[in-house]
């Protein structure tokens, strides 16, 4: 008996997970203990919140906890079942005989035209484009069936065909398994359809994982974003405006001595009104000290 089985024996049959605070608290303790087991799948290990959802599914379906955790998937943010689980759950429910399949179609090559939409990226935004393409496939299909054990009536699910797969856009998706494993995909989809029609209480109305992958989430076309040219920042002048007149004269001086003679006679700070500020004087002196006069003559 493995670790999960031991824990399952102690799970109350009626946890009432979401009906009371005490029920939630009790379920959380169980979920926390299970999440620490090495036997749980990776998406449940160390994540008691995920285990709590699995416990709720155990209550709803009556299946074992480990079976739920191994077969419950999340696709596009929504829960879904592995197709093998739905087949097993229906067959072991006591209401139906084991599921069987009936093949339909001629098996001959046919050409089917697909018309639909494809999302592409243009100028950094998602846009929906109408596409049309012809696909050559074999005219094959099947439907799932079983006997109702109570009435002994043969119960049939909706048929699934390769033509349907093309027209629904399942076949033309990037990386589609309908191209490489058509028989397996037909059986998986037929099981899902049978469960939706005749055993929705067993499947809880959830799709199979492969069906959820084929049904893309609804996307909205992004509005066109107009980029206006940004205003260029005015470049800060290399020197303040008040200095430019003096700079023109200093730049034509033969050497540093001539430049100093000019500022001594014309721009030395004075006490009278209108004289240059001391900070301006210091700015001019620093410019002369750093300037290379060798190229002036």
Note the main attributes of this structure.
8 strands, single chain, about 20% strand, alpha+beta, two-stranded antiparallel sheet, 3 domains, elongated, four-stranded antiparallel beta sheet, 12 helices, about 300 residues
Give the number of helices: 12
List the domain count as a whole number: 3
Number of strands: 8
Order of helices and strands: HHHHEEHEEEEEEHHHHHHH
N→C terminal distance = 100 Å
Structural class: alpha+beta
Give the % helix: 40-55%
Overall mean pLDDT score? Answer: 83
Largest sheet properties: 4 strands, antiparallel
Low-confidence stretches: none
Supply Rg.
39 Å
What do you see in this structure?
The structure is a single chain. The chain is of the alpha+beta class and 297 residues long. It folds into 3 domains: 71 residues, no CATH class; 150 residues, no CATH class; 56 residues, no CATH class. 40% of the residues lie in helices and 18% in strands. Strands 3, 6, 7 and 8 form a 4-stranded antiparallel β-sheet that branches. A hairpin with a 2-residue loop joins strand 4 and strand 5. Helix 2 packs across helix 3, helix 5 packs across helix 7 and helix 11 runs antiparallel to helix 12. The radius of gyration is 39 Å and the shape is elongated. The chain starts with a helix and ends in a 7-residue tail after the last helix. The model has no long low-confidence stretch (mean pLDDT 83).
């Amino acid at each position: 008996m493995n670790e999960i089985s031991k824990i399952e024996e102690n799970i109350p049959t009626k946890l009432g997970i979401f009906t009371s605070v005490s029920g939630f608290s009790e379920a959380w303790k169980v979920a926390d203990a299970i999440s620490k087991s090495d036997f749980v799948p990776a998406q449940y290990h160390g994540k008691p919140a995920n285990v709590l959802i699995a416990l709720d599914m155990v209550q709803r379906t009556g299946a074992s906890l480990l079976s739920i955790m191994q077969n419950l998937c999340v696709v596009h943010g929504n829960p879904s079942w592995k197709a093998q689980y739905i087949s097993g759950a229906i067959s072991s429910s006591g209401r139906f005989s084991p599921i069987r399949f009936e093949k339909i179609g001629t098996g001959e090559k046919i050409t089917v035209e697909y018309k639909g939409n494809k999302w592409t990226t243009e100028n950094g935004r998602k846009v929906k484009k109408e596409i049309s393409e012809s696909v050559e496939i074999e005219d094959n299909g099947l439907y799932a069936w079983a006997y109702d054990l109570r009435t002994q009536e043969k119960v049939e699910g909706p048929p699934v065909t390769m033509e349907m797969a093309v027209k629904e856009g399942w076949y033309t998706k990037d990386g589609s398994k309908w191209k490489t494993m058509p028989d397996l995909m037909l059986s998986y989809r037929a099981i899902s359809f049978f469960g939706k029609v005749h055993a929705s209480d067993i499947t809880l109305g959830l799709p199979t994982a492969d069906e959820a992958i084929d049904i893309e989430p609804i996307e909205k076309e992004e509005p066109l974003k107009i980029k206006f040219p940004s205003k260029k920042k005015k470049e800060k002048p290399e020197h303040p405006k008040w200095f430019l007149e003096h700079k023109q004269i200093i730049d034509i001086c033969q050497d540093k001595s001539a430049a100093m003679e000019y500022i001594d006679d014309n721009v030395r700070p004075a006490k009278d009104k209108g004289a240059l500020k001391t900070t301006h004087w210091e700015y001019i002196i620093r410019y002369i000290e750093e300037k290379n006069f060798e190229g002036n003559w």
